[in-house]
Amino acid sequence: MKIYSDEALTIPITAIEFGAVQAGDIKDVTVYVKNDSLAELKNLKFTLDNPEISIVKAPENLKPWGIDTLIVRWNVKVDLRKGLKAKININAEEYWSNE
């Protein structure tokens, strides 16, 4: 599975960049996930390495070569001098077709 920052799937990423946001703000970021295998992916679980970030929308399953959106939300608690970057972790079960 690959994650992209753009809908055209030309910029692959391993972390989501939120940029600089002020305390009290909420910022949503949409990224695009692509199943780049011949297996269907089921029971997808997305986690991020920051407790202030939550998953707003995520696919539960992706067919082979399927594409969907992942929306994450940063509920900013403190001002940061630098923008926040959060690593994405993905777990799924692979289902291979016998066809």
Describe what this molecule looks like in 3D.
The structure is a single chain. This protein is mainly beta. It has one domain (2-95): Immunoglobulin-like (Sandwich), CATH 2.60.40. Helix content is 0%, strand content 55%. It has strands at residues 2-4, 12-13, 15-19, 26-34, 40-48, 53-57, 67-75, 84-95. A hairpin with a 7-residue loop joins β1 (2-4) and β2. The relative contact order is 0.34. The mean pLDDT is 90.
Q: What's the topology here?
A:
Elements lengths: L1 E3 L7 E2 L1 E5 L6 E9 L5 E9 L4 E5 L9 E9 L8 E12 L4
Antiparallel strand pairs: 1-2, 1-4, 3-8, 4-7, 5-8, 6-7
Short description:
The protein has strands spanning 2-4, 12-13, 15-19, 26-34, 40-48, 53-57, 67-75, 84-95. It has 99 residues and is an all-beta fold.
Average pLDDT = 90
Radius of gyration over C-alpha positions, nearest whole angstrom: 15 Å
Distance between the termini: 22 Å
**How helical, in percent, are the residues?**
under 10%
Characteristic key phrases:
99 residues, mainly beta, Immunoglobulin-like, five-stranded antiparallel sheet, three-stranded antiparallel sheet, 0% helix
